[in-house]
Amino acid sequence: VQLQASGGGLVQAGDSLRLSCAASGRIFFSSNNMAWFRQTPGKEREFVAAIGLGGRSVSYSDDAKGRFFISRDDAKNTVSLQMNSLKVEDTAVHYCNVVPGITSYWGQGTLVTVSS
Q1: CA distances from 65 to 13, 23, 77, 106 (A)
Q2: Of 1, 7, 24, 2, whose CA–CA distance to 93 is shortest?
Q3: Positive or negative CA dihedral for 81, 108, 50, 26?
Q4: What is the dihedral of CA 12, 40, 96, 33, to 10 degrees?
Q5: Across the chain, where does the E strand assignment appear?
Q6: What is the pLDDT of residue 102?
Q7: How far is Cα of residue 18 from the mean position of the Cα atoms in its chain?
Q8: Tens of pLDDT along 52-74?
Q9: Per-block mean pLDDT, blocks of 10 residues, the chain (116 long)
Q10: Which pLDDT value is given to residue 68?
């Protein structure tokens, strides 16, 4: 299974970015809860947002709540994260994974850099 995250880049504080994660390989994507995580150097990987089967439920970290929006497209095996009002503190490598996370599914992630 490969989970390929994309869409990161360098933006200014207050800007928006949309991340996407495409799943491939032997995975029944629609049967998995999916989530976004992020990690900065020297820190533990942290939860950002999750979405349940069929998109019927979503949850967010306190920091992401109200600014980020997670969605999924089971026909395309993708999960997306719309990030608005970005802050410098959002700078991190962002990853997607199934919930609960499977170690071998972590990909390279996509780097989001927010400048002041």
Answers
A1: 17, 25, 24, 24
A2: 7
A3: positive
A4: -110
A5: 2-6, 9-12, 17-24, 33-39, 46-51, 58-60, 68-73, 78-83, 92-99, 110-115
A6: 87
A7: 9
A8: 999 999 999 999 999 999 999 99
A9: 96 98 94 97 95 97 98 97 98 96 90 97
A10: 98
Identify the CA nearest to 92 among candidates 1, 5, 23.
5
Determine the Cα–Cα distance for residues 15 and 88; give it in Å rounded to an integer: 11
Q: Report the alpha-carbon distance of residue 52 to residue 58 in Å, rounded.
A: 6
Please compute, for residue 109, the number of CA atoms within 13 A of its CA located in the half-sphere on the CB side. 16
Residue type, 69: F
Decide: residue 52, CB within 10 A, 0-12 exposed, 13-18 middle, 19+ buried: middle
Amino acid identity at 32? N
List 35's β-bridge partners, or say none.
50, 97
